[in-house]
């Protein structure tokens, strides 16, 4: 019974997570009912069916006088001390001045002292799109699809908005024939992403659209930048392309462009490029501390974007490094980033906390494909309770310091927080 949070979320339309005192609450265990009304206890007088004291016609003065005169009215007796099971050892009280369990002893107290909240408003929903009409399931990510940009995507966005998730980030599956060494399709104003942004903005003007800025979906090499013949990923030339990509996305209506490429200096360059084109209102969410992680495996399958050779270790960070995240954060902040992102999420909670404590900017965490797939797989095999682990993992990312979370669970978690079960 060591539930750390109570599985009650907001009702539809409410933008916070908390208790709804007006109706019984269901604990995580699924067993205990909690009635937040003050307990009405035991006997008072015969005839008071519900145990409450019937009203008399005495004035306040009469009541006080009666008590002063020693005619103290009856109230229920204090409840008896609950019995311990036979065989429980009898021990002297531990001399503790502090017993932290006191603040955890009832659902109401636990709710009162809960430090972190989780709301659909914190979620950004990553969505995979493709040119096709059908939604194609992604094998390594149960429940995720490459969505048809015209139909499946629009329906998925509608479902998310229904439960309070109004932010999405788009990842395109680009036809091989459009990929090239320099990834020029990335800034085709009529390419899949800009076209999709225009469609979504037409339908849902208030939807917050984040975009991915990186060349990998468009690169015939599967790298985030331009690859020189000796295998080196060219930094400044790539940044030039990324600026064009970000401007093209902004022109289509993107709200937040998110460079995930880890080239040096791209935040400042993109800021300058956006401003020069009149997009000073468009935000930059920088993938500040993006690690060269094996947790991206299912994502690369989803987009068919595995690097054709080598790995991404010359631009993505070494998972062994902590201080280096501060260097990246300092640069991004001074170059004008609006949001700093840490990726992956759960294995890097210390880095999320580091950035939270060293920057005043909003912090984003990306619960990446591998994290999602592990929870899904564990749930499918009945090794863990998928829903509870999902909610706990998201709560923990918030507790570590993330303001927003990019998560493939966005819709499922929001439904769960809204009390909708499927
Ligand atoms: C690439 C990109 C990746 C992800 C988001 N953008 C993969 C990579 O760096 O190879 C991974 C997201 C995930 O695993 O969920 N620009």
Would you write up a description of this structure?
This is Delta-aminolevulinic acid dehydratase. Keywords: Allosteric enzyme, Chlorophyll biosynthesis, Chloroplast, Heme biosynthesis, Lyase, Magnesium, Metal-binding, Plastid, Porphyrin biosynthesis, Transit peptide. Pathway: Porphyrin-containing compound metabolism; protoporphyrin-IX biosynthesis; coproporphyrinogen-III from 5-aminolevulinate: step 1/4. Its cofactor is Mg(2+). By secondary structure, this protein is α/β, with parallel strands linked by helices. It is built from twelve helices and 14 strands. An eight-stranded parallel beta barrel has the order 3-6-7-10-11-12-13-14, surrounded by nine helices. The chain is elongated, with a radius of gyration of 28 Å. The two termini are 25 Å apart. The N terminus is likely disordered. Ligand PBG binds next to helix 7.
List the helices and strands and how they pair.
Blueprint: E1 25-26, E2 33-34, H1 60-68, H2 107-112, E3 123-130, E4 136-137, E5 145-148, H3 152-162, E6 167-172, H4 192-203, E7 208-213, E8 226-227, E9 233-234, H5 235-252, E10 256-259, H6 266-276, E11 283-290, H7 297-303, H8 323-335, E12 339-343, H9 349-358, E13 363-367, H10 369-380, H11 386-400, E14 404-407, H12 410-417
Parallel strand pairs: 3-5, 3-6, 3-14, 6-7, 7-10, 10-11, 11-12, 12-13, 13-14
Antiparallel strand pairs: 1-2, 4-5, 8-9
Helix pairs in contact: 4-5, 5-6, 10-11
